């Protein structure tokens, strides 16, 4: 075995010790009501207790603000403290409410102090704001976005808010569709962040061959392109998933069987190796089921998922792992592949839903008629206004503009094994690399024995 291979192996093993795993959590329920602390807690505990899976103990949130308030901190925070769930915080950056988001962040820091700080693994300033600011987002009626310079200003404001506080070590990033990260007009944002949050949905890449069998390669290709725009910074998988039900997008068919295939082929190689917040635990409840719907547990919150979450035995190459895992260095990346079909337009985003993300997904292309705002909507908005939010995916609630605030966050539960444990904090990334180094050493030792 060549040393370089050994190194890659050691790195991948090492990173796996520390990677964060969780789901996305909006701030609202299916009926638009705000999630309470106990509701967040139930979600987090459910994630921790999922049958067939472990380590889902991190929650990505979209807003700092509790629904129905001006700028009270979101109740996902005390729920995370109570359930030992790490938090990828989010500030909703579109729609002109950033001052309230910042106020809620400050209040959370002073109100919850160290108990809170030790759970925070990162802060995302915004979610898909650049996508919504693009022609595709506008066509999809995804709601207000922001210009890159504005976002950079907000990022700088967050840096000053956390300076000298318990959160001062939290790495600051931004979450957007991968198509936004590779748009060079947004490069000021790439430069301003500590890490890049990747949202990508092959299901919505409806201008390309996007059957479930194309899912892994479309995903890997999008990650490779994002990495090459990242200038060596870490790429975290902040949203991906395949719908369990809903309308078809070109060759993309929403079904439980396909959601499982995507989990196995895309999710499993990531889990434990690359920071990943899956989309999603639950996006539907008895009050509403979005179309498409991505929730792996269906409409009744339960630790019994709709499909077997047990990961297949690791076949050495499972394509994904190496190349897909963003955090890994990169080189390998399948390069820019083309995949192409891009330019075309076409798309028919038909369903409402999808559209939002579509874009994200769709590679460079644009097109997709995102038809209704729907999509986006679902994703996020519930509470708020409408659409916007998470790129498209559903419900969960993220909010849109104003809503933004609404949106909630998610949380992941902790407990399970492996992961860095709730105590992790801002330094998860650092630790990860530390342990990677340890594994390299171990790998070398093994090689010498051999
Ligand atoms: C690229 O980014 C700029 C700045 O955000 C935006 O105005 C433009 O519409 C984007 N282009 C595409 C094709 O999305
Ligand atoms: C591009 O689109 C055409 C027409 O849709 C399709 O036949 C072809 O397979 C696509 N190419 C790729 C790389 O997806
Ligand atoms: C996109 O949507 C618009 C409005 O829905 C429709 O008129 C147009 O034909 C669509 N374009 C494509 C390519 O489907």
Q: What attributes characterize this protein structure?
A:
450 residues; 10% strand; 16 helices; disordered N terminus; alpha/beta
Report on this model:
The protein has 450 residues and is α/β, with parallel strands linked by helices. Helix content is 37%, strand content 10%. It has an 8-stranded parallel sheet. Helix 1 (3-18) crosses helix 16 and helix 3 (76-83) packs parallel to helix 4 (98-117). The longest helix has 22 residues, at 428-449. It is globular. Mean pLDDT is 75; it is low at 1-16 and 317-450. The structure holds 2-acetamido-2-deoxy-beta-D-glucopyranose (3 copies).
How is the topology of this model organized?
Blueprint (H helix, E strand, L loop, with lengths): L2 H16 L2 E5 L11 H12 L9 E4 L14 H8 L2 E6 L6 H20 L2 E8 L1 H4 L2 H5 L8 H15 L9 E6 H4 L5 H6 L2 E5 L15 H14 L5 E6 L16 H15 L5 E3 L41 H5 L27 H10 L12 H6 L21 H6 L21 H22 L1
Parallel strand pairs: 1-2, 1-8, 2-3, 3-4, 4-5, 5-6, 6-7
Helix pairs in contact: 1-16, 2-3, 3-4, 4-7
The structure holds 2-acetamido-2-deoxy-beta-D-glucopyranose (NAG) (3 copies).
């Amino acid at each position: 075995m060549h040393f370089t291979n050994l190194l890659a192996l050691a790195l991948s093993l090492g990173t796996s010790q520390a990677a964060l795993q969780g789901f996305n959590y909006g701030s609202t329920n299916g009926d638009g009501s705000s999630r309470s602390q106990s509701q967040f807690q139930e979600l987090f505990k459910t994630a921790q207790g999922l049958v067939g899976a472990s380590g889902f103990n991190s929650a990505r949130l979209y807003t700092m603000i509790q629904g129905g308030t001006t700028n009270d901190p979101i109740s996902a925070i005390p729920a995370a403290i109570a359930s030992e769930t790490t938090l990828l915080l989010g500030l909703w950056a579109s729609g002109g409410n950033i001052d309230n988001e910042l106020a809620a962040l400050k209040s959370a820091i002073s109100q919850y102090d160290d108990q809170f700080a030790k759970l925070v693994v990162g802060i995302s300033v915004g979610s898909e704001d650049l996508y919504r600011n693009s022609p595709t987002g506008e066509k999809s009626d995804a709601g207000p976005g922001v210009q890159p310079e504005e976002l950079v200003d907000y990022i700088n404001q967050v840096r000053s808010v956390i300076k000298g506080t318990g959160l001062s070590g939290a790495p600051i990033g931004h979450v957007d569709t991968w198509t936004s990260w590779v748009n060079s007009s947004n490069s000021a944002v790439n430069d301003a962040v500590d890490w890049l949050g990747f949202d990508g949905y092959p299901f919505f890449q409806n201008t390309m061959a996007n059957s479930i069998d194309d899912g892994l390669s479309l995903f890997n290709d999008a990650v490779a392109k994002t990495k090459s725009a990242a200038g060596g910074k870490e790429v975290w998988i902040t949203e991906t998933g395949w719908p369990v039900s809903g309308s078809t997008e070109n060759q993309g068919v929403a079904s439980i069987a396909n959601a499982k295939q995507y989990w196995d082929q895309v999710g499993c190689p990531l889990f434990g190796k690359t920071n990943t917040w899956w989309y999603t635990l639950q996006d539907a409840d008895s009050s509403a089921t979005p179309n498409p719907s991505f929730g792996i547990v269906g409409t009744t919150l339960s630790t019994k998922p709709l499909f077997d979450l047990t990961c297949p035995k690791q076949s050495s190459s499972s394509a994904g792992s190496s190349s897909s895992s963003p955090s890994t260095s990169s080189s390998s990346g399948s390069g820019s592949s083309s995949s192409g079909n891009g330019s075309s337009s076409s798309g028919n985003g038909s369903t409402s839903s999808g559209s939002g993300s579509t874009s994200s997904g769709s590679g460079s292309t644009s097109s997709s008629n995102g038809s209704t705002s729907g999509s986006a909507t679902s994703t996020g908005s519930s509470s708020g206004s409408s659409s916007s939010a998470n790129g498209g995916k559903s419900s969960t609630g993220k909010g849109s503009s104003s809503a933004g605030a609404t949106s909630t966050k998610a949380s992941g539960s902790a407990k399970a094994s492996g992961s860095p444990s709730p105590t992790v904090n801002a330094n998860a990334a650092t630790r990860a690399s530390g342990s990677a180094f340890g594994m390299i050493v171990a790998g070398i030792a093994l090689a010498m024995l051999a």
